[in-house]
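# nightly structure sweep
# worker-07 picked up a monomer target from the shared queue
# config: single-sequence mode, recycle default, output format = structure tokens
# input follows
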Amino acid sequence: MKQIFTTLLLLTAAIISANAEMRTVWTGPHSTGGWSGVDIPSTNFSSLEYGDKLVFSVERDIDGATAANQTYYQCQVNVWVDGVGTPILNGENGVINIENDDDIEVNLTNEQVDLIKQNGMSINGHYVIFNNITAGTEEGGGDITPDDGTASEVWSGSKSLGWDFENNSINLSYDSKGALANAKIGDIITITYTNAGENANIRIGNPNGWEAFDSDSETSPAASTGEQTFSYEITEASILGIIQRDGIIITGNAVTITKVELTTYPDSYDAVAVTIGTEGIATYSKSDKTIDFTNSGITAYYASAVETGRVTLTPISIVPEYTGIIVRGEAGTYEIPVVTDAEPLMTNYLRAIGDWEQQISASAEGASLYIFNESDVTFSLVAAGTTVEANKAYLETPTDITPAEGSIELEFEDEGGTGINNIEIDKTEDDNYYNLQGMRVEHPTRGIYIHNGKKVIIR
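# output follows
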């Protein structure tokens, strides 16, 4: 997961030849010897522009490295802000090895440009000669978007944050979430801030409870007066779902926030999180997204037929939006990609709840409603009004299909029409049990298993 605590997105330095479009911003030579650096003032970089790159012309100081323990060649470039150095070159502690006498190119982000123009930089190394530094763009440059991302402004202004969260927060939730509604996995939320003081803190949190999404969505920046940025990459479908639906809340202490942006990249993508509990089966629905279970590791089903004591479940790969389904697989949370729209199912007795919990009424003549009980792996008739969780589904049938004895069986069509029989078993038996993936289970708990060639439910 990428997280940037300053204005720099650390980029890999490539050894290449200088571009003819470059302009000189510093001239040496300077030999670093044994880590003797030089500071280059910000005035040298006053003409730096967004989309520029820097090229460092370096060579090994072979003549200077006379001792046996001196014959290694490294260089380092830092931007210093209030005693804290941020490396530009991507290596361990910002140090890279120099194996040939050639040029080092660094493609700059907009944030890097701003920081260098404000603070200058220092160059250093171990027996490396810096000959000059040039800046510029590729041919036809000047409109280059760093990392090919497209930034959308979510909020701008000036908001000083303190620990009094109620009065010192930036609320970008629900109707105020703007571009966040279309966020994707791989997108980056960037917060621009100034005047970071002692005990400074910035948190990107869940509007429901205001807690940070994870450890990467909160930072405690070093004290500084200049403009800085804090960036958070969305990497999990479960967090993405919250951001798309609910937005974010920004809180913190001893900083002034001036802008919030969302940057989308060509390889960003949309997905939903589907969670299956320990029983290996659950219901699911999504309000406005068509999702693809192909190669997901779990199987989705819709209810294609019902009869007294039985629900027939048919596998489906592409699930249209607002469609109730049952999912089966190993316990865990799965990332399911969003795809283009699909035609709605003609017959499906599972009803979608969608992204917000709903109250369903008691069953009545002509509409019998059933809630799925994951622990018992069956449907139960709704006798009174019931709240169904968000992103779940319930069963609706024209008549009551509750059997006179036992409970409703689930018949999965991809298993040769064999239903799941609700057989109570004794857990102390010595016979082997297997899960639905064919793996032996030494100590079965509640759930669906294969035992003596039959499907059984342990309650």
